[in-house]
Write a structure and sequence with these properties.
Elements lengths: L1 E4 L14 H9 L3 E5 L10 H6 L3 E3 L2 H7 L2 E3 L6 H4 L7 E4 L7 H10 L2 E4 L14 H18 L21 E5 L3 H13 L2 E6 L2 H11 L3 E5 L2 H7 L5 E4 L14 H4 L7 E4 L20 E4 L2 E4 L9 H22 L1 H7 L1 H4 L2 E4 L2 E2 L2 H7 L6 H12 L1
Helix pairs in contact: 6-7, 11-12
Amino acid sequence: MRIGVPTEIKTEEHRVALTPAGVRELVEHGHEVLVQQGAGVGSAIADLDYVEQGARIVDDAAAVFAGADMIVKVKEPQPSEVALLEPRHTLFTYLHLAPAPELTQGLMDSGATCIAYETVTDDRGGLPLLAPMSEVAGKIATQAGAFALQKAAGGRGILLGGVPGVRSGLVVVIGGGVVGVNAALIAKGMGAEVLVLDRNIDRLRELDLLLGEGCSSVHSSTLAIEELLPQADLVVGAVLVHGAKAPHVITRRQLGLMKPGAVLVDVSIDQGGCFETSRPTTHTEPTYEVDGVTHYCVANMPGAVPVTSTRALTNATMPHVVRLADLGAVEALRADRHLLAGLNVAGGKVTYAPVALDQGREAVDPLAALDALATAAA
């Protein structure tokens, strides 16, 4: 199989979907790898590094898409990339389709087989390809929030860790998953007071053990959030519903409960955002203000640290990339129910029920979609 790696073109995105180690593994399995010129530069990977492991460097994205059977990316395809997709392509990347009906329609129209990193599962019910970026995003969320609290950045002028004789800042983390745990650990390390909210009682017990002294767990409810907002200096939104739009846990009205200059960091922005007033921002212009509250809603937070993020992501994705290349998309998906859970669009149909539900579309059974692809190929 020919695997193509285009340069990421989303604003301020510097990650790349394959490292030289990944190229080496694919080449040793008998596959050909096409890498767009300069694709790895933002992650400190030179073209020569790829060439030395057997990749072929091509000039532009058009050459990558024209020459490859499978396209491996990091972020969702931008309009110019969607236009290059064909029914023969397998696309493997983060998609986050629930809040993106136009992208969904574009992928359906392309006829390509589209597999989303963020809905691939594992035996424990986890999301193994989302987890490494959730770890990074959780840590960045607290760092970014701490910076946004500085007066020069428009914040209250709070040092999260405080100093002797001055109280530390209060960080409220809504959501006790991978993002929330990492956000809380960084906040704790900074010396802040930390509260983590979640609805699952068993998870709250786990959080108490995981986070230890210095962090407290709180059962999440509308009232609990409203009682904490007036005290919070930084609120991290870390709410995840697998593959679906994130629910709004803080409304526009509730912003009025917060201190002027307090900060909201919405890590759920890829899934539509968990604050009613959230809208996607970029690393170039990461914040904006609503009713005196600073919002940080960068849609690709891990892109700020691409040297770390690229390696963390590819460590997780490579076994699946190799399997897809070795077996072909249809057989690899049929053989692995966890990879099959990542199938979002195939043969012009939506195959992931939460996306279909959020967009008012009809969901097609993924195995039925694969059967249709196999029949068409025959």
